[in-house]
Amino acid sequence: MDFLVTNAEAIVFYTVAVLTVAGGIGVISFKNPVHSALALLETFVMVAVLFILRHAEFLAAVQVLVYAGGIMVLYLFVIMLARVKDVTMERVFLSGIAPLAILGGVLLGSLVAIGILLGTMATGAGGAAAMQAVEGVQRGNTEAVGWILYTKYLIPFEVVSVVLLVAMIGAIVFGRRDAVLAGPGEEVQS
Amino acid sequence: MISAEPYVTLSLILFCLGLIGLMVRRNFITVLMSLELMFNAVNINLIAFSFRLGDLAGQVLAIFVITVAAAEAAIGLGLIIALVRLKDTVTLDEADEMRG
User: Fold this and answer.
1) Nearest CA-CA distance, residue B99 and chain A, Å
2) CATH number of the domain where residue A106 is located
3) B89 contact residues in A (CB cutoff 8 A)
4) Residue A37 covered by a domain
């Protein structure tokens, strides 16, 4: 038990690392894009645990909200819209692996919980203190990141918001029905 | 307290996996997912060194990387929709209009 307590961080890290790599292998090796997307989701959540272990709590929340929430839903919508012919849908949740899936979910959940617990407990170390300091005063990670983002990195922050705007306009232009690129021998419909 | 090296190694493995997926896969959707893997590998690296050096700049950079990744996902998925409308496929080999 002593071994477990003293090496808790290493144990959580290596378990999470193995699961991250497994998710990455899943992304590039599953035939069905939906399965790839689920493997990618697992990788995103595991990376969020790694962020918590390195005291980037705000980024872990952003990772789950933006990646696992936003981008993942976008991917699944596109997979649904694309209606690819060669994709075969399996009724996974009605087959025998449902209990295994539930067990895996519970194990993953407890792993994330242990990671969060470790991250919040291990304050006071040199690196951890810097992650939470606002001009030398100990606040929280979110406050510290927000402070530096809106003071020292204000101009890059504004520039990156323009990048996002350009991407949004580009995506709208691509998505318009009458803006489809013409194939060989076709006129562009306008 | 474990050091930065395991994080960097993990980041390297994840980046290489994404690179392999990018080069090997022919499905446009999976290629974009491999790109997301590479973005995540970069973020792990940034966070590990941010902690190692006690500097918040790494976390701010990671926020910018996440923003750019979201922009990339929006553009890439718009391209997929356009490709599906044009050719009814997501296989990259069939998008060969630019071939001489």
Assistant:
1) 12
2) 1.20.120.1200
3) 84
4) yes
d(CA A13, CA B7): 9
Domain with A26 in it: 1-121
Indicate the DSSP class of residue B39: H
Tokens 């580009």 appear where?
A170
CB contact under 8 A, A47 and B40: yes
Structural domains of chain B in order of their starting residue, each with its CATH number: 5-94 (1.10.287.3510)
Dump the DSSP string for B61-96: HHHHHHHHHHHHHHHHHHHHHHHHHHHS--BGGG--
The ipTM estimated for the assembled molecules is 0.91
Distance from CA of B92 to the nearest CA of A (A): 13
The verdict on B12 touching A (C-beta cutoff 8 Å) is no
For A149, which of B48, B63, B81 is closest by C-beta distance? Answer: B63
Tens digit of each residue's pLDDT, chain A (190 residues) = 677 777 778 888 999 999 999 999 999 888 888 889 999 999 999 999 999 988 888 999 999 999 988 999 999 988 888 866 555 544 544 556 677 778 887 887 887 778 777 766 665 555 677 777 777 777 788 888 999 999 999 999 999 999 999 999 998 888 787 655 555 555 554 4
For range B26-33, the mean pLDDT: 90
